[in-house]
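Loading example: each entry is read as two labelled lines plus one structure line.
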Amino acid sequence: MNIGNSLPVFILLSSLIPGLIIFFLREESRRLRTILNISGALIKLFLVAMLIWGVQQEQMFETRWSLAPGLEFVLHADTLSVLFVTLSSILWLVTTIYAVGYLEGAPHRSRFFGFFSLCVTATIGIALAGNLLTFVVFYELLTLATYPLVAHRGTSDSISGAATYLKYTIVGGAILLLGVIWLQTLTGPFDFVQGGILDSLPSELHPQLKWIFVLLIVGLGVKAALVPFHGWLPKAMIAPAPVSALLHAVAVVKAGAFGIIRIVYDVYGVEFAYQLGLLTFLGIAAGFTIIYGSIRALSQDSLKKRLAYSTISQVSYIALGASILGPIATIGGVVHLVHQGIMKITLFLAAGNYAETLGVHKVSEMNGVGKRMPGTTLAFTIAALGMIGLPPIAGFVSKWYLGLGAFEADVAEWVLPVLIISSILNAAYFLPIIYRAWFKTKDGEWPQESIQAGALETRATLLWPPVFTACLALAAGVFAGSVFSPLEWAELIAIREYR
Amino acid sequence: MNDSLIWLFAAPLLASLLSVLLPRKAVLICLFAVSITLISSLIVLSTVIESGAFYYALSGWQTGLAISLYVDGLSALMLVMTAIIATAISIYATAYFHNAEQQRFYWPLWMMLLCALNVLFIAADLFNLYVGLELLGLTAVALTAIDGKPEAIRAAIRYLVVGLLGSLAFLAGVSLVYTAYGTLDIAAISEQIQVNFYSGLIVTFITIGLIIKTALFPMHFWLPMAHANAPAVVSAALSALVIKVAFYLIIRLWLELFSDFNNVGISYLFSTLGALAILWGGWNALHAQRLKLLAAYSTIAQIGFLFMALGMILLLPDGEVRNTLIGGTVILAITHGFAKSALFLAAGIIQQHAGHDRINELSGTAQRLPITTFTLTLAGVALIGLPPSGAFLGKWYLISSVVAEGLWLWVAIILIGSLLSAAYIFRLLGHAFGRIERPKRLLAIGREEVPALLLALTATLLLAFTAAPLWSILENASGVYG
């Protein structure tokens, strides 16, 4: 057997198998559960490292399995999959460590970690899917695996939040499926190919291709939280912090954005999509979402809700990058897939720390929190400044490339205002938080201080994950020019897309 | 190898008689008989895969005189599905009954039902089909009434009357055939049959008879009461198998014997009835107050999907696209068989634990039975048609054919029907997440929960990833009986 070809399968199994075993563990077997989780995550990282090395050498990794005539289950690894797989694997490890600390003593932990691993498996499957059928399979699996996580607490609020989430995503999934099947009736079965395949279709099919594009983008836009399909996201905030972190940084929202990239670059081909006039449609949707999300974030007092609207806005930078023709904008959009992930996970983990340690859920309760929890607040600050786009943090790199790309494609007259307005708005909703945390003095007791400060400000498992991801966000910006940085990898993707 | 064909109905028949004579050994006898049908069906399937469809005259008489049997890829698949589901139901049934008298009636009747099912899948003449249908109808009614509750008796009587109506229509068709052609052998009829008013009447009677039996809208009204009030072991067989065999006969007859009668109007008629069934069944399932009633309405909707697909098959010209859709329809039917039996068996476990099956009061029970809740989830995934499940593949081809023909109203109905099924399944699963501590033991009653779980796993993972050979097996359906 050729190990190389089945490497994608093993990467999937490294989270699937621990997940399935964990379902059957007793609640008390905490140690075994943690060992399974962490070793699964470490094995996955090791396998992903092998994958990165191979893909950079243009080695082919592909597994095919025939499901039915004309329907094949294909896993394969190209540069784009590798980017998303790497992001997911690293953040899975970080979030798992965090979740172990966060859920200490909470009920139903076996169920939680079981679905958590399934959720990551589905995300990795989305990254490695080699054709639309496989993509849809994992996309739906992701819906099924995240629903129990959102509903996890079992209160009536979380069950209704999860129900809203489900309504949006199931309908979105159905629309996506319709688009995919319709496309397949025109083309027959095909794999994702860098540069796309649809430009070879006869021109009388072009009107149908436009409709299909709209169906696909709407179907994916539900998970990517494109306005007006974003309504589930603020409600799903009811989920435990590690779940929100994962949902916003890697799993659900990012899966939608990743799908949009796949459709634009590897199904339609960015140049063909441009010829059909579809990029303008996508660009308007993305630009509108960016501004709308930022404006809504301004008025949220709940920290998690503010972050949620910020996600809606930030994830659309990825779609914005995809909607601008030209390699530089492509680099900006693709690299933001990673940058937004590491910055946003930092913010959510930090928000979880405030809630878990001090009972602080609202922005208005955050006065002076920097003195009490300096590590967490520093991590939060770095990530928030990155989101605003301050150099040398990762977010700056994304925005810089998006802006340059807009000039290159001659669409700067509307892209640049979007970028600038959104950055101002980003600053307007993040800077007051940072100011309160560091410079205002604490007024009264913390709402519910359940973890006392010792040598560390909170539990080690809660503190180190956000600090680590904040460092990643800083490193991704500072070392953007070096080998194997997200930026360098995004350049590789753009080169292979436009050659 | 042909002996296996006989054992398929002889073993349950003998077991039925023996279990009346030796009620204390009934369970053992019947389990033995069921395992024989399982082995035989697998042998039959492998024979068909190796050497194609075959025709068999019982006791060596010539065609026309003997009882003749016919097996091809389609019937072999149905036999295997039936045998596997029957095995699971039988194992479950060993733990299900707490009333000795019910158990004494259950086993002989259940074996008789299994015998009738297998006869219907392999009979090659109309007379045996009629006998099989009567036997099936009567045993199904008796099983429905087995627990003796007033609602069950009332449902059973209604079921009996409607069932007799169906058989009567079928019999009318059969006697017209005999008067016209002097034979009931399907192969012989297919050589003589021509499209005219008289034969049109035959086709109408037989089709209406079978439509009543398969509960296609608007002939569905008897189903919810019967399936919801029968004991879970019985409902599982009724919904997964009894309904399915009537659909099997319709698809078989319309693709072969009646194929000359096919026209655009007929295909739209089937699709339209299917569409109405999808909407009506889905809507009522969403508003059902009881779990088993939900499952019963869901069956009506699922039958709707099958008829929608049948209409599309009849609309398409011969060729690869049509064959692929036939395969898709078969896998949709098979997945429904596994998923629905799993759902009913799981519902039975919940009913026994909670003492009721009112959906709004199920939270605690669902959380105390994690494995059964998991079974419900998997069965639900297959009923909605989400991946990974066999139904996903089936729906893919159905949607694909409807889109290719540009029938956007049907597209909308299929999507709405699937969303309705998602809505009623998740309405159920919402109760699985509460604040009750997880029980120490995951399995409450292994003999009931494990068979149900295995059925649900078959409907989802197994059929999703290993169904590819199904399409080549179906190519062994030779077109005409014999």
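The CA atoms of residues 11 and 154 of chain A lie 32 Å apart.
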